[in-house]
Amino acid sequence: MGCEGSGRQWTAEEVKMGGTEMKGKLTVKIPSATGLPDDTKAMLRVFMIKDALIGSKESLAIKTGAEKGTDVSFDLDKTIGLKGEYIAVKIVVRDKNFGRDKDVGVVEIPVDQLISSGTVSGSFPLEKGGEVQVELIYEEGSAGIFGEYESTSDSD
To answer: How open is the CA angle 34-58-1, to the nearest 5 degrees?
Structure first.
């Protein structure tokens, strides 16, 4: 399974599986995004996608403030504890300019890929132009040590 954009359709087999058990900590590092469309006021949202009976359910894990420019520095480095079954980590770059509030691009990284390698990193292209630099590090262990991840809100 590779990294997919926002049009990701989960197979019946993946939905039936119910996701992959994750128990440990996930460190999300997103230093910057470059080459964004002109006059973008970019913000990040990071979701953990859980399998649900009808489609997938997204739980907001991390949200940043907005930065203006075609090249922005997020300096995001956050660790969350995880305990449960997940199918992907979804990173959304949004344009928060007045009246727009639209996605610049979406990156989805399957948790199977993250668990098997421990780290996923690189520059990922965004649908409306530019790219976002991402590093995800997963460490298996007791989520309780790190503070069990709890949903802060559902996707909007």
So the answer is: 70
Percent of the chain at pLDDT > 70 equals: 73
DSSP class per residue in 65-126: --EESSSEEEEEEEEEEEEEEESEEEEEEEE-STTT-EEEEEEEEEHHHHHHHSEEEEEEE-
* Token representation of residue 11: 């197979």
More confident residue, 5 or 56: 56
Question: pLDDT tens across 3-54, in order?
Answer: 444 455 555 555 445 678 888 889 999 999 999 998 899 999 999 988 765 5
Structure tokens at 52: 């649900």
Range 18-146: architecture per CATH? Sandwich (2.60)
3-state secondary structure of 15: helix
Give the start-to-end residue ranges of the domains of the chain: 18-146
Q: Is the dihedral of CA 126, 123, 153, 116 positive or negative?
A: positive
Token pair for 92: 């959304």
